Amino acid sequence: MNRMEVKSQTALFLLLLCWVVAILSYPTGAPVGQCVMMTPNHSNATLSNMSSPYSVTVNASTYVLGGIIKVYINSSVPYRGILLEARDVNTSAIVGTWKDLSTNTKTLNCGLGTNNAVTHCNNTDKSGLVYTWVAPAKNGPNKVVFMATVVKIRVEYWIELKSSELTLATTGAAFGLKSSAFVTLSLLSLGLVHFL
Predict the structure, then answer these.
(1) Radius of gyration of the chain from Cα atoms?
(2) In terms of CATH, what superfamily is 26-171?
């Protein structure tokens, strides 16, 4: 073999190796390093400039500390990859945890958190999955939004897809007891004043 043939074969091998690596990019989920920016690091992939066929929806407009919220990726188009997080609207901090995931997804430990993000664990088509978020038990933010990166195929994806914002609800029982006591005392004092 002459030098030219060796160089050609080496170049072909490197090209083939790059192609294999590109095909296999993150088939088992987003790496923890992507938690903040939520951008896939797939080679030769670019953010889609087309309107997203996916939307992020939730089953509530408010949440309570320690409560459960169901999150959905709505579309008639299946997706292969996902990175899903709940974020504090004011600080962008990742909040809460995830549980009861399908066999096609898994949790990530982003930053100092545990099970605080969801990603895919294979590159098979996904649709109709329900993601279960558990709100923080204490010190929950006033407003939470769910953010997703959805990968249709390795080279076509959308980032920062957002749900509607959820507001932290005041605890109804505690608020109700205080209000009832105030109203009862007010009515009693009015009654007593009236009888005097």
Answers:
(1) 25
(2) Reeler domain (2.60.40.4060)
